[in-house]
């Protein structure tokens, strides 16, 4: 899927899980829906000056939402479809980090830089609460990063890692 509608559908599918309430109800009652949907819309139009002006009220609302919940998710950060933020508290993502498809980001997660070095996160990655991913780190596809992990080295695909600093625990089955 590509384009705004495809990415929004993938994001909503990932966020929704087994919850079958109507989307407007979920948008109004769940902050993670609001932040992800607003991010996706603003991300799609952030390079267009005219669209940015037309979406200024939406941008201001996004800014208010992200400030209120301490979420630093710049709209120019490249994130693949199927983004899922859970709880939306204290999430920091560097604008130059690259994040793949179907990525779950728990609360209190930092995906940051070390000088001019930025993380690259693959597809189908689960980043549990409290993780720090710092610097020139490449995380492969289908990886689970345990809660409270400090990731400063590359992670192979299909792995489960954890600890502070992170260590390989086992191959994901």
Automatic annotation (TrEMBL):
InterPro entries: Hexapep (IPR001451), LbH_SAT (IPR045304), Ser_O-AcTrfase (IPR005881), Trimer_LpxA-like_sf (IPR011004)
The entry's keywords: Acyltransferase, Transferase
Gene3D superfamilies: Hexapeptide repeat proteins (2.160.10.10)
Catalyzed reactions per annotation: L-serine + acetyl-CoA = O-acetyl-L-serine + CoA
Enzyme category, top tier: transferase
A Pfam family annotated for this UniProt entry: Hexapep
EC number(s) on file: 2.3.1.30
Family note: Belongs to the transferase hexapeptide repeat family.
Protein known as: Serine acetyltransferase
Native species: Mucilaginibacter defluvii
């Amino acid at each position: 899927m590509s384009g705004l509608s495809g990415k929004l559908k993938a994001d909503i599918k990932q966020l929704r899980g087994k919850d079958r309430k109507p989307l407007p109800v979920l948008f109004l009652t769940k902050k993670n829906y609001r932040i992800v949907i607003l991010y996706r819309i603003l991300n799609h139009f952030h390079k267009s000056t005219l669209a940015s002006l037309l979406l200024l009220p939406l941008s201001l609302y996004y800014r208010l939402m992200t400030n209120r919940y301490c979420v630093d998710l710049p709209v120019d950060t490249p994130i693949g479809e199927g983004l899922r933020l859970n709880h939306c508290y204290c999430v920091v993502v560097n604008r130059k980090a690259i994040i793949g498809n179907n990525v779950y980001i728990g609360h209190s997660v930092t995906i940051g830089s070390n000088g001019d070095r930025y993380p690259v996160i693959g597809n189908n990655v689960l980043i549990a609460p409290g993780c720090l991913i710092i610097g020139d780190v490449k995380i492969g596809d289908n990886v689970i990063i345990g809660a409270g992990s400090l990731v400063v080295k590359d992670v192979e695909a299909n792995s489960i890692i954890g600890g502070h600093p992170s260590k390989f625990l086992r191959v994901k089955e």
